[in-house]
Amino acid sequence: MNQLCDFFYELPEDLIAQAPLTDRASSRLLVLDKKTGAIRHDRFINVLSYLNRGDCLVLNDTKVLPARLRGVKEDTGAAVEVLLIKKTRENFWEALVRPGKRIKTGSKIVFGNGALIAAQEAELKNGARLMRFDYDGEFEAILSALGETPLPPYIKNKITDGERYQTVYAKNAGSVAAPTAGFHFTEKILEDAGHARILTARITLHIGPGTFRPVKCNDITKHEMHAEYYEIAAEQAETINRAKKNGGRIVCVGTTSCRTTETAAFRNDGFDSVNPGSGFTDIFIYPGYDFKITDALITNFHLPESTLLMLVSALAGRENIMSAYKEAVREKYRFYSFGDAMLII
Question: Which one of 9, 21, 33, 49 counts the least CB within 10 Å of its CB?
Answer without folding.
Answer: 49
